[in-house]
Write a structure and sequence with these properties.
This protein is mainly β and 313 residues long. 13% of the residues lie in helices and 41% in strands. The chain starts with 19 loop residues before the first helix and ends with a strand. The N terminus is likely disordered.
Length: 313
């Protein structure tokens, strides 16, 4: 979550060598045995081991007790970022099946007034630092109801608390989509922003940001990797941004998704409108920098085994 309007907010294997005879024998095996061997070789080659979090968001509703048991909090009440006086609504976060997978829908919107503005956020515990963060997210350019044009922010990000102004231990990594622009950007844009620190009073920001001005309406695979010297952002397997020191995180962060309005200046209307951001899954593997392809293989493996949640971090 970026602070471009500081006054509006407060502020996660060894390979086996076989002989030619063995290779020929394996090639001659019937289909099911061959498929099993291929699956085992793929698992061995991947070698994704160690602490990890995977959640397929297979929940019943915003009040499902397993959400809390699995470390998630659905934000409520008021406070930044975004429109001052807006309310964070847990009940606007719903779960349903799409293409065989359970998907989160985060519904946010406004009637043109602060009191009639509703935001959504879901966040995990604060315990993540180096490693690979991934999520499949659907960004939306147009509202499901009402007129279009609001300055919405749809996100996948990680963050730690700011203990004092310009706290050097502060850490934040953002994927933010602006379907209708905002923060001086005139139209749709995707931003990847890495933070060193900030101060609200006096206003001061220390970050580096990469942006691409285009529509990203649809499902996208987002990956962020972090090691001791580099942050790398990918979208749909494509390198999007690379950031280095002094923006590499220094303290553990929580993983979050939120959906909110920057302001009420996008359009002048008192008609109710609502926008939706969707999330298919989230995945984190600790202290390992994975390629986007390796992330997809790991997620497919969880699903093939029927695993909808696992947390060993």
């Amino acid at each position: 979550m970026t602070r471009r309007a500081l006054l509006s907010r407060t502020r996660a294997a060894a390979g086996l060598v076989a002989s030619a005879m063995m290779c020929a024998a394996l090639a001659a095996l019937p289909g099911p045995a061959s498929a099993a061997a291929d699956h085992q070789r793929a698992r061995s080659a991947r070698a994704v081991v160690g602490p990890a979090l995977f959640d397929d968001f297979n929940y019943l509703s915003s009040t499902d007790q397993q959400l809390t048991q699995h470390g998630w909090t659905l934000r409520s009440g008021q406070g930044g970022p975004g429109v001052s006086g807006a309310t964070w609504k847990p009940q606007n976060i719903t779960f349903a099946t799409a293409s065989g997978n359970s998907v989160i829908t985060m519904r946010s919107g406004t009637n043109g007034t602060a009191a009639g503005t509703e935001h959504t956020e879901i966040y995990q515990q604060r315990k993540f630092l180096y490693g690979t963060y991934a999520a499949r997210v659907r960004f939306s350019d147009v509202p499901t109801i009402g007129p279009d044009g609001d300055h919405m922010v749809q996100t996948f990000f990680t963050i730690s608390p700011l203990d004092h102004p310009l706290d050097p231990a502060y850490s934040e990594l953002d994927f933010e989509y602006l379907p209708n622009g905002g923060w001086g950007i005139p139209s749709s844009a995707l931003l990847a922003t890495s933070w060193e620190t900030y101060s609200e009073n006096p206003p001061q920001e220390e970050n580096v940001s990469t942006q691409e001005r285009a529509s990203f309406n649809d499902w996208h695979d987002l990956v962020v990797t972090v090691d001791s010297g580099t942050i790398t952002y990918y979208i749909d397997g494509r390198l999007f941004a690379t950031h280095g020191e002094p923006y590499v995180p220094e303290s553990t962060m929580s993983i979050r998704f939120n959906h909110w309005l920057i302001d009420l200046l996008g359009i002048n209307s008192r008609k109710t409108r609502a926008y939706e951001q969707k999330v298919d899954y989230v995945y984190f593997v600790q202290d390992q920098v994975l390629t986007p392809a390796a992330v997809q293989t790991a997620v497919a493996d969880y699903r093939s085994q029927g695993v909808t949640f696992q947390d060993t971090v």
